[in-house]
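Review form for a predicted model. The reviewer records the input and the model, then writes brief findings.
Reviewer: anonymous (R2)
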Amino acid sequence: MDERTVIRRVQDGDTEAYALLVREHHRDLLACIHRLVRDPHLTEDIGQEVFLDAYKALKRFDPERGTPFIAWLRVLARNRCVSALRARGRAGLSSSEDTPEPACEGPGPEGALMGLEERQVLAASIDKLEEPFRSTLLMSLSGDPLEDIAGTCGVPTATVKTRLYRAREKLRRLLAASFGGGRYERQL
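Model under review:
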């Protein structure tokens, strides 16, 4: 059955037709969520929440506008992921164990402390990036290809490239302000 027809049936009150949409998009949505949160338990929880959110909001979804249902689900999922990661006290790479390690300045405890401080400043700077720049940068840092990021965000690949460029520029300025310019102006 055509997806638009199924959506119209759900919008007309056929609650059982929604199971067809869930079955069709469940695997793709969970893969998208897992790429963002990297936690299988959280992935399942967010997946259920997204499908519930989508069901509640489906009355407002217009399949005739040309937006694919899965793209709409991915936007809902991305927003849920960001909220869930913030609620857990970390936003993607915010925790020090997930943040890429900059080179230590010196040997021994001083170098280790400097590396920790740099990771904390980097994490705080990433947290200051507004959406959609933060999530795009985090997906890129996680190794996701541009095409996957574009699919997750429901935007063209060119938009992802622009967002990455702007995210790096904003991050470069934040780090330069924290460290007084120098090496971070060139590195990102």
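Findings: The radius of gyration is 20 Å.
Further findings: Residues 157-179 form the longest helix (23 residues).
Recommendation: see findings above.
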